[in-house]
Structures are given as structure tokens and as C-alpha cells.
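Can't attach files on this board, so I'm pasting raw text. These are the components:
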Amino acid sequence: MKIGVVTFPGSNCDYDCYKASRDVLSADTVYLWHGDHDLADVDVVFLPGGFSYGDYLRAGAIASLSPIMQEVRAFAEAGGPVVGICNGFQILCEAGMLPGALIRNRSLKFRSKPVHLRVERSVPPFTSAYAVGQVLRFPIAHGEGCYVAPEDELDRLQAEGLVLFRYCDPGAAVTEAANPNGSVRNIAGITNARGNVLGMMPHPERAVDSLLGSVDGIGVFQSVAEHLVGT
Amino acid sequence: MSYHVEVRVVPREGILDPQGKAVHGALSNLGFAGVAEVHVGRLIRLELDADSSEDAQRSAIAMCRQLLANPVTEDFEVQILQGVGGPV
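---
Top answer:
C-alpha cells for the assembled complex are below.
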């Protein structure tokens, strides 16, 4: 199993992802460069958090057109698992690989704090290590994390079970007060229809060691590893 | 021919516009009464080589669809201001 983490100019969670992959999964992990066309034969691609291209124009807009994204798109179209975290989620939406968009937090404030997430579905390749209804504690750190999409798109996401995580309170209740950014229907993470592209604003890679305050993020990495072993 | 083009990108109606809301609040604090709504967008100026004004317009619209505006959350308007070195 080989895991690739893309570095864009302005990525700042690439090392967190790299370290989580290498140390938690003991996986062969490599950095991929935004300007290359080479995915180095990896089995899964992580698009990390940060401020690629300074968030110019819109968060993720310029990065979505980088050379490496053509390869990431082809990789995903061939069924390869792709995980976009925070800025990575924004990039996937801008690339049209996930529906919807991420706009300025309703509070207009940059939110950096731990939040609770409810696992909506336990499915490979990203959430099989969790139970449905399980409450996870992940950090968030973003200014543009308010997920929006047209109503019919939201209904489709829901009907097809593509919402994997929602913001909730510690007791698993999905409430307005537990929503840190104004995302519609408290959506924190979604997949594409095929289920092999995940985008989420909270940071699982920053919740993989008790020193960091939570180990709940390990499950995302474990789920991917289990899936790859099985394929 | 070279054309000056202005592209205005605004949040689509019905999409949450927290920036507009915040500016609206600040204007009220300054004592500007009677401001019903505020929306904050962006202005993009292009200088564009094109065969005609229509061509410049088409090209700018394609840019908006692919990059300059987000099709989920934003609307755009393209205005051809003037052709440089020739009549408009």
C-alpha cells in the first residue's frame, strides 16, 4: 500500500497527513508535487489542508487547475480513492469532482477549535472503521467551510447516502448550535456518487494521537487501509 | 484588437452572503439608514485580444464559466468597455 499526499503552494497540512499515514498506518507514503503529472503509483491520494495559491479568487479554485489535478481526476475516474481535507475539500468542489461549494463561514470568523461529528454511514473505503451514529471529535480550522448546494442536490446527496459526516453536539444531536460554519444540513463531509472521493472540512489527520487531544481520526486512515488490503 | 473587459461576479440570490450582511450591519452602525440590502462581489478587469466585441464577450463568458465565477454560488456579468486602437 502506497499513499500520496499532494503539496500545493500554500498547503500547510501536508506534513500532518504524511505523518498520520506513515506513523499511524506504517504505510509507504510519498509527497506528490502540484506541478507534476506523476502520481508515483500510489493507491490513495490525499489533498491536504492549507491555503493553496493564497486562496486567491476562491479557496481551491486555482489549485483545482494544477497539473497534478488532471492525474487525480483520472485516478478517481478509474475508481482510486481520493480524500480532500479542508482546503482539499474546497479543491475537489472547485474541480467539480464533488457537488456543491464551500463559502465564507456564516460567522465571518475563522474557526479553529475541536468539533463533534456524527458518522452517518459506515462504508468503505473511508468510514468502515466507524459505527453509524458514532460521535467523533476532530479539529477544524477554516474561514470558508460553509457547505452549500442546490436543494435538489442536497436531497440527492441524502437519498443516495453520500453524506458521511454531520456536525453534532457531544450527544450526537445535529443542532444549529453545533454547526461551526453554517453548512447546510450540518454537512461536514460528503462523497461522490461512486463513493471513492471524500471531501471533509474537519481534520482527521490532526486527531491521530492522544497528544493532539483525540485519536478519533485514525479510523479514516484505517478504513482506507482495510479497503486497500481487500482490493 | 485589444478590448477592455470588466467582469462582475456577485453572490447568487438566495445564497448566504455573510460578507454583505456584515457590511450592511457596519453601514447601519455608521448611521446610514435605509440600506435595504448589501452584497459584496468582485470586479475583474481583463485586457483581451479578440477579433470583435462579440468574440471578446464570448471568450470572457467562457472564462467565467470555467474559472472566474463559481457556477454553484455566483452569478456574473460581462461588460465590454472599449476596444483599444479602434472604434467600439
